[in-house]
Each structure stands twice: as C-alpha cells, then as structure tokens.
Amino acid sequence: MTNMEGAELYGLFENYSYNEFIPGDDYASPCSDSSVAFNKILLVTIYSLVFISSTLGNFLVVLVISYMQQQKSSTDIYLLNLAIADLLFALTLPFSTVSINSDWIFGDYMCKIVSVMQEVNFYSGILLLACISVDRYLAIVHATHAVTQKRHLVGFVCIGVWLVAALLSLPILISRKAFRLHNIIVCYENIGARDNEVWRISIRFLRHLVGFFIPLVIMLFCYGFTINTLFQTRSGQKHKAMRVIFAVVLAFIVCWFPYNMTIFADTLMRVKIIRETCEVRGHINTALRVTQILAFLHCCINPILYAFIGQKFRNTFFRVLIQKGFIKKNFLSTYGMGSSYKSSSGNTSTTL
Length: 352
Known about the structure:
mainly alpha; Rhopdopsin 7-helix transmembrane proteins; two-stranded antiparallel ribbon; disordered N terminus; disordered C terminus; transmembrane helix; membrane; phosphoprotein
C-alpha cells in the first residue's frame, strides 16, 4: 500500500462505512491493487453529475410537496422525508469528490460530520422505502384508507425512522477519524486493536441485516401482494401504479443489491469464510468501486420514480411554476391537466 497515491488509498477506503481499517491488521498487508486503474477524471465527473442532479431533483421534490394545497397523503409525507434524506446525502458528495484527487483535507471534525450524515441518510433512505411499501400494501391490499391517511401517525413513523438511523450511526460517530497513514491523511474508521474484532464483525452483520436484507424482504413481501391485488382489478390507474411499483422494486434491487452483495462478500472474507488472497481482495476492491457508483445513482433516480411520474406531483409542480411566473396560467387547461388535478385522490396522489 505504500506505493498507492492518496486518492487511490482513500478511494479504497471510502465505501460508505462498511470497511474498517485497523492499523497493523493483516488486511492491510502489501498487495498489488488491481483496482487503482480507475480514471480519476471519470470518477470526479460521475460524482459531480450525481451531486448536481440529486440536489436539484430532491430539492424540487421538497419544494413541490411543501406547496401541495390539498392535504398531504401518507405517501407524500414519506416521499418528503425520503427526498430530504437523499438531499442531505448528496450534500456530502463534494467532500468525496475533492478527496478523489487528494487525501482528506477537511480535518477530524468534518470527517465525523460527513461520515455520520452519509450513514444516517443511508439507513433512513432504505427504511423509508420499506415504510412506503408497507403504506401501499395497507392502502391497496387491505384498503385501510383511514389508517394510511392519519398524518400524525405517519409523522411519528418518520421520526422513529430518523431516530433508528441515528442510533445505528453512533458507531461511526465514535470510530470515524481523520488520521495519517503512510504520509496520507484518510477519513476512516480507526477501530483499534484486534480485541475488537468480534464487535467489529457484529456491527457489520447488523448493517447488512437492518441496512438492506430486512428492508428488501419487507419490500418484496408488500409489493408482491400489492401487485397480485392490482392484477385482479380492472382499474387503469391501479395498473399504472403497478408499473410504478415494479420500477420502484427494480431500481432498488439494481442499485443496491450488487453493492450490498460485494460488501457481504468482503465481510465473509474478513471472518475467513472466504479465503483471502491478493486476487480475491483485488476483485472485491474493484467491485466495491463500481457498485458504489451504482448505489450513489439511486438518490438521483428517486425523484423520478417517486415523484415526477405522479399526476398530483406534476400538476402541483406546474402550479408552482405558474405562481412564480415561469409559465402562463392557461398551461394546465391547454394540456388537459386541470381536471386530472382535481380528481387526484390523496391516497393515490403519487401513483405508488
């Protein structure tokens, strides 16, 4: 590792908070890194585009949902919190982008803040996706309209999600530090001695379960029954919702499944279930970088999947543009959107 450049070493470490570095650990033994050939300009470009598109898209989601004149449905409230989570995560990307071409220059304090923001919003985003799936399951399969429309109940659920995400992120707040390694400053988890190995692996498996596998099972269960119910109806709007639900599940799996499987393989290698060799480590390091980019893209896709294809959202967005003077007042009637806005119910406002 002594021959690796600062950006390359940081790129190896900066995979959310899943990989922990222990000075002197055998995991850091010298190995030729086959994954360092990544083009830094390409990475900077991708991160910058993700930052711009995610910031703009999720800011518009927050703005439009806040401007909704009708009573916000339970799904709208979940979408608002999801957009805030993605927006806050996007705000941390410039720090990662800068660090691609240099070591960590922002100090120990910002290292903790940025790391905790990423971790909190990672957990809250995935847990909110699971909440949306449960909400749609109750609304469509069991038709519990009254339950899903109780805003104060949904608000408590969202507060609970943020609190759980904050609690799960406490290990990062404690262990994440900016420290010097081979004349390079890195922002990474400094767990300490080997005596903490059991605790370290336990935290890893907790992240795998709570951060991906349990929410995935919930989503597959809820959306599976939801799609089955929609297949049995003749409603065109519900069939449109079925297509949106399929896109939601597909995007979640495509973006997060490869990354989490790679992280899980890395965990199995650390607990010696998978034999660790330089070749295996190189393949995992390369896969981590590729799948991490794919996972980051999910925060850009969310505004499209959860909001922009929703009828009520589009009409509210155009009404905001009219209010701000960007388009004329007869735009909605010209394009036949006035009646659809009035007929949009709160429960199916986002077609989810």
